[in-house]
Amino acid sequence: MKVFSLAVVLAPPNKPSTILCSASDLSSFSFYQRGSVGEFMSFFTKTIAERTPQGQRQSVQENSYTAHVYNRGGAEQLAGVIITDQEYPVRPAFSLLTKLLDDFIAKVPQSSYNTPSAISFPEINTYLQKYQDPRQADAIMKVQQELDETKIILHKTIESVLQRGEKINDLVDRSTALSAQSKMFYKTAKKQNSCCVIM
Amino acid sequence: MHELVAKLGDLLNRAPASVELLPGDGSEWFTEDSPQEILHYAPFLFVEGNLGVPHKLAYKLYLQSVPTFQECRARLRLRRSVSLPDPDAEYPTLTDDTLASSAVLLLVNPAHQSALNARKRLVQLGTLDASHELRFVSALLTLRDGAKQSILWHHRRWLLRRLHPPLPASREDPHTAATGVSGPQGDGADSLGGLCLDEGWFRTEFGVVSQACEVYPRNYHAWTHRYLCAQALATLCTHPSTSQAQRAALTEVLREETARAREWIDRHVSDYSAMQYACRLRLLWGGLRSSPDVPGSHAAQPMDEASADGPLAEHAWALVKAYPAHESLWLYLRGALDIPALSGLPIGQSIYAHAQEYAERLLSEETARDDASSVSPTDGALVRNHAVRLLAWVLWKEKKVQLEGRFVRRVALLAGTPSKGITRVDLLDDTAHMS
Q1: Contact in structure between B130 and B121 (CB atoms under 8 Å)
Q2: What is the pLDDT of residues B281-309, one digit of tens each?
Q3: Contact residues on chain B for A90, CB-CB shorter than 8 A
Q4: H-helix or E-strand containing B231?
Q5: Topology (CATH) of A3-164
Q6: Membrane-crossing residues (chain B) (predicted)?
Q7: Which residue range forms the structural domain that includes residue B66?
Q8: What is the pLDDT of residues B221-263, one digit of tens each?
Q9: Domain assignment of residue B235, yes or no
Q10: Domain locations in chain A as residue ranges
Q11: For the whole model, what pTM was predicted?
């Protein structure tokens, strides 16, 4: 049961998104994979956030990973994305996203969204560590009255989030945020269809 | 022997902190402005003691190693059957070549039995240090393919048996009756029972297992190895030749293990091997408790379930309530409920009753919505399946039913029936009772 990454994303509709702040725990990955896994986490975070309409929640499964996204929208146009393994329970994941975004909005002024590197929000690291075991976190295991699970859209692969005509392989290839090593890891994982490698 | 085989063999035999195979030919990792420390090890990567070997290269070097290895193996065989005068003069690099070629073979195929046996031969001949070889095995266990190989774990135990002297023969241990293990040798020659290891060794072994379980999840052979170590630990605790101070130190390690197993289960709720391990560990404690030789087996430090944060059954039940869709947790609960029966203590009646009540509640008309559990709508069918089976199991343990065709079919039928309130009465209905 693992949370791999947590991110707050500025997601204006129909425009590219920006990760405002993020935290990750990639210690369970091998030494040379770690960097690439980190890059892919960011890549998928943005790809998924950009394709989630405001006010909506989605869960995207890809190999042994699940990404949950909540596009809060609103004046701040923020979305929260959490990437976990298959075991991590769904409700606490969304509960955490709501909490994270509320906290972020309260503490970080909207004016600093233009300069993400200047944003200081160390709480995101605390959230990541604390919620590795959802039972330890205060009461997020309880049912959230306002969370209607039937409204969460579930995607069995990341391909189904993409627009018509978009292919994930093309997006990976074209991405400038992914290093040559990362793309190599991705290509090999796809070929071998091996889980628990990159994606 | 080819130069790259020798280079790779040398890096592997240094027992690096980790080993992994990189995709393709590795060219993405090297550029003209790569620093010297990187280029020094090219075409391999060796950063901070972590070895990376490109896939394509590994396979190529594997093929090149095979003839070298076969030659070495043939010569090692000769050395066993005929004691040659000054054998090194004939093939002075026999040891080095064997080490290098076998290491490369094992990188690609960590279950290469002949390669491991050749290395065992070198240990027997005294040209390979057993504790260094243990570190080499630890490196192989960081490979995803390696961590799951029973043969590697067996090789590890072989090395441990070589490194440590056996305990002096003792009378029958009282704990063996509880654990069902025959004598200090344990269950056959592959155990570590009867070895004199200190607490540092045990901690190392447990650490290696933990790492292997991270690399390859739900790692059955790793947990088996862990259990054999724990069993050896328990044997040592009750052995008359162990000093009081040693006993205290070893008991502390066992205590840590119990806590660690629970923490692991909290974070890995599908790892059934870990749950079985926790139950068997609890049995080992039971055996220690009944031994008169162990400190605190009666008064000073109670070594019962309370020493590890409450009874195991409560831990299991809390997890089942939190994650009812996971079958492994329901089986963990059953395993934990079974323990008092095996060690002669009274059955945790309240846990049994609560578990049953919870199962029935899950099966009642109004599930999920206003329940404080985390049953999501998609898991409904799965959860009812587990709950029905628990009820059936409880009835079977209470000897209210026999495990025969009619009952089993009834269980399956009720488990598959959606949205219907089910209680134990429904299971009992129309089934044969024991006379």
Answers
A1: no
A2: 988 888 777 665 555 444 333 344 434 44
A3: 376
A4: helix B220-238
A5: Beta-Lactamase (3.30.450)
A6: none
A7: 1-125
A8: 999 999 999 999 998 888 888 888 888 899 999 999 999 999 9
A9: no
A10: 3-164
A11: 0.87
Mutate to test the interface with B, among A30, A91, A136 (most CBs of B within 10 A): A30
- Which residue do the tokens 């066992």 mark? B254
Chain B touched by A193 (CB under 8 Å): no
Chain A residues lying within 8 Å of B268, measured CB to CB: 1, 87
Would you call A133 an interface residue with chain B, using a CB distance cutoff of 8 Å?
Answer: yes
Contacts of A141 in chain B (CB under 8 A): 322, 374
Q: What type of residue sits at position B424?
A: R
pLDDT digits (tens, 9 = 90+) for B401-410: 888 888 888 8
**Is B369 part of any domain?**
yes
* In a domain? residue B88: yes
Tokens representing residue A142 in the block: 């309880």
Disruptive mutation site among B21, B28, B51, B309 for chain A (greatest number of A CBs within 10 Å): B28
Report whether A29 contacts A37 (CB < 8 A).
Answer: yes
Q: Which pLDDT tens digit goes with each residue over A20-56?
A: 999 999 999 999 999 999 999 999 999 999 999 999 9
Q: Which structure tokens are listed for B312?
A: 């195991």
- Asked whether residue B228 is domain-assigned, the answer is no
Query: How many A/B residue pairs have CB atoms within 8 Å?
Result: 65
Cβ pair B374:A92 closer than 8 A: yes
* CB within 8 Å: B374 and A143: yes
Domain closes at, from B125, B146, B165: B125
Asked if the model's pLDDT at residue B151 lies above 60, the reply is yes
Query: Considering B125, B149, B182, which residue would you say is the last residue of a domain?
Result: B125
With tokens 């409904």, the residue in question is B380
Strand, coil or helix: B151: helix
Predicted pLDDT at B216: 92
SS3 category, A114: helix
